[in-house]
Design goal:
Elements (H helix, E strand, L loop, with lengths): L1 H19 L7 E5 L2 E5 L1 H57 L2 H10 L7 H14 L3 H12 L5 H14 L3 H12 L6 H13 L3 H13 L5 H22 L2 H10 L8 H13 L3 H14 L3 H6 L9 H13 L4 H13 L3 H14 L3 H13 L3 H15 L1
Antiparallel strand pairs: 1-2
Helix pairs in contact: 1-2, 2-3, 2-4, 3-4, 4-5, 4-6, 6-7, 6-8, 7-8, 8-9, 9-10, 10-12, 12-13, 15-16, 16-17, 17-18, 18-19
Length: 391
C-alpha cells in the first residue's frame, strides 16, 4: 500500500512539474563510456515513473509467488508430520496389543518427520526388547540419545528394560548416574528399589526409604516391610562375614521398636543358631517371649542346643500353662522330646498341636513317633494324611 501511494505521489509530482514547465522541458545528457543518451527532463521523469511502476509490480508478483511456494511447502511439511503422528499413535496401540513387529514398523516409518522423534525411537526400543532383539534395542536407544533433552527419558527407559530382562547390575549403573541429579523422580526411585532388593544392597535400600515414602511410592505398611527385609538382609550379611560379637553389636544398635519386631527377633535367633551361638540365641528368645508370644520363635527353640535343655522346656511349659492350646509350644516340646527319644510324650504333644491346627511337618513327626513305638497301623494312617496334604 505504501509503495502504491508513493507511486501516485511521484506521478502527481511529474504531472505538476510537466504542466508547470510546459515548453521548458530542459535537457538531460547521460554519457556511459563512448555512448551518450539524450532526453528531455519530462521524458526522464516519465521513464523513472514507469520503471518504478514496473519494479513495484514485479516485486508484488514475486512476493505472491514466494508466499505460494512457502504455503505449498508448509502444507507438505504439515502433512508429513500429521501422517507421522498417525503412524506413531497406531504403533503405540500395536505395542499395547503385543504386536511388536508391527509396532516397530509403525513408529519408525516416518520418525524423521515426527515433531518428537524421541518418542518414536523409545517406543521402537520397547518393541525390540519385547522381541528379544537387544542389538536392535541398543540401536534405537542410541538414536534416541541423539535427540534434544533426551537423557532422562532414555536412561529411565533403558533401566526399565534392563530390570525387566533381569540385568540388575546394568540397571544399577544406569540409575546411579541419574539419582544425584533426579533424587525425587518416582520412576527412578521405584526402579532403584527393585534393583537394590535383587542385588541385596540392603543399606542402599534403607537409604532411599525416606525418599520412597515422601514420593508416596510406598505406604506405611510397605515401608515397614522394606525396612524389615533390609535389616534381615543386613543381619544375614553380618552373620556371614563377621563374628558373633559383631552380630550382637549390630543387633544392639537397632532401635527399640525394631528389636520388638517378631520377624526380626526370629531371624536374629536363627542367625545365632547357625553360628552355634546357642546361649546368645536363647537369651534373645527368652527376653522376647517375656514381652510377647511369637509362635514362629517357639519352633526355633528346639534348634537351640544348650547343654541343659531344661530352661527351654520350662519356658515352653510356662506358655502352655497360660494357653493349653498353643500349638507351636506343643510342637516345640514334641521335637525336644524326640531328641531325647521320649516317643510317647512327643506323640501326646504332637496330637495336641494337631488338634489346634493342621501342619504337615507335625504329621510327619507324629508318624515317626508312632513308628518308633511300633504302632505301624496308626503310623500308616498318619502318613496317608501327609500325602493328602501334599497333594
Amino acid at each position: 500500500m505504501f509503495r502504491l501511494i508513493f507511486l501516485f505521489i511521484v506521478l502527481g509530482a511529474g504531472i505538476f512539474v510537466g504542466t508547470h514547465y510546459a515548453g521548458q522541458q530542459g535537457y538531460v545528457l547521460i554519457s556511459i563510456a563512448d555512448k551518450t543518451i539524450e532526453m528531455s527532463v519530462t521524458t526522464l521523469v516519465v521513464f523513472v515513473v514507469i520503471a518504478l511502476g514496473i519494479l513495484f509490480v514485479a516485486e508484488t508478483l514475486l512476493k505472491k509467488l514466494l508466499r505460494s511456494s512457502s504455503a505449498t511447502w508448509q502444507w507438505f511439511t504439515i502433512r508429513k508430520v500429521k501422517r507421522s503422528r498417525q503412524d506413531t499413535n497406531e504403533g503405540i496401540i500395536k505395542l499395547l496389543e503385543g504386536q511388536w513387529k508391527l509396532a516397530e514398523k509403525k513408529v519408525t516409518r516416518r520418525a524423521s518427520h515426527h515433531d518428537m522423534p524421541l518418542l518414536c525411537y523409545l517406543m521402537a526400543s520397547e518393541a525390540a526388547i519385547e522381541m528379544g532383539d537387544k542389538a536392535k534395542r541398543d540401536r534405537y536407544i542410541e538414536l534416541a540419545r541423539k535427540q534434544d533433552n533426551s537423557s532422562l527419558a532414555v536412561a529411565l527407559t533403558l533401566a526399565k528394560q534392563q530390570v525387566k530382562e533381569g540385568e540388575f547390575k546394568l540397571a544399577f549403573e544406569t540409575l546411579s548416574k541419574l539419582h544425584s541429579d533426579h533424587p525425587t523422580n518416582p520412576l527412578l526411585l521405584n526402579l532403584l528399589k527393585k534393583v537394590h532388593v535383587q542385588l541385596k544392597q540392603w543399606q542402599d535400600l534403607l537409604d532411599i526409604v525416606p525418599q520412597l515414602s515422601k514420593a508416596k511410592i510406598i505406604d506405611a505398611k510397605e515401608q515397614k516391610e522394606i525396612e524389615l527385609l533390609a535389616h534381615k538382609g543386613l543381619l544375614t550379611d553380618t552373620a556371614i562375614t563377621n563374628s558373633t560379637e559383631q552380630l550382637i553389636q549390630y543387633w544392639d544398635k537397632l532401635s527399640r521398636k525394631l528389636k520388638t519386631e517378631p520377624e526380626l527377633i526370629v531371624h536374629m535367633t536363627k542367625q545365632l543358631v547357625e553360628k552355634d551361638a546357642y546361649s546368645e540365641a536363647f537369651t534373645i528368645a527368652k527376653e522376647a517371649l517375656k514381652k510377647q508370644t511369637i509362635n514362629e520363635l517357639l519352633l526355633v527353640l528346639p534348634t537351640i542346643k544348650l547343654a541343659d535343655m531344661h530352661p527351654i522346656v520350662q519356658q515352653l511349659e510356662a506358655l502352655i500353662k497360660k494357653d493349653a492350646n498353643l500349638a507351636e509350644a506343643h510342637s516345640a516340646l514334641a521335637r525336644i522330646e524326640m531328641q531325647n527319644q521320649q516317643w510317647p510324650e512327643a506323640q501326646q504333644h504332637l496330637e495336641k498341636a494337631l488338634s489346634s491346627r493342621t501342619d504337615r511337618e507335625d504329621y510327619i513327626l507324629l508318624a515317626k513317633a508312632l513308628e518308633k513305638q511300633n504302632l505301624t497301623q496308626a503310623a500308616n494312617e498318619v502318613s496317608k494324611k501327609v500325602i493328602s496334604l501334599t497333594s
